[in-house]
Amino acid sequence: ESVAKAYPEIRLVQCWVHARRNFVECENAFPVECGQILRLIGKLYEIEKRAGDDLEERRRLRDEESRKVLAEIQNWVFEVRSLPGTALLQHRQPFRQPPGHPVVARA
């Protein structure tokens, strides 16, 4: 039996390392856009680092701080995608998400 079936209250969110790698790979071509998203992902890493191994502190920081950063990431995604004529819109290949990787969906 899968973990997801055994614990339906747990939500799989995947790892930011895989999403981050795509932006690092194309940062030379899109330095402004990639720099923005890499700084935001860095904020998430910093929050996790501060939490250390304390699960309660991690939960608290994710709830109080990570949610705000994720909202910034969501806004960034829609801002960049809506800029007419941007290179990112013309060369979207590096930004496609492989199956099972983080996807920011507008609520």
For this entry, give a set of tags.
about 110 residues, mainly alpha
Report a brief summary of the structure:
This protein has helices at 3-6, 16-25, 31-51, 55-81, 87-90. By secondary structure, it is mostly helical.
What would your notes on this structure say?
With 107 residues, the protein is an all-alpha fold. The chain contains five helices and no strands. It has helices spanning 3-6, 16-25, 31-51, 55-81, 87-90. Helix 2 runs antiparallel to helix 3 (31-51).
Structural class by sheet pairing and helices: mainly alpha
Radius of gyration: 16 Å
Distance between the termini: 31 Å
Shape: globular
Number of strands: 0
What percent of residues adopt helix (DSSP H or I)?
A: 55-70%
Q: Mean of the pLDDT scores?
A: 79
Low-confidence stretches: 89-101, 103-107
Write the layout of secondary structure elements.
Elements lengths: L2 H4 L9 H10 L5 H21 L3 H27 L5 H4 L17
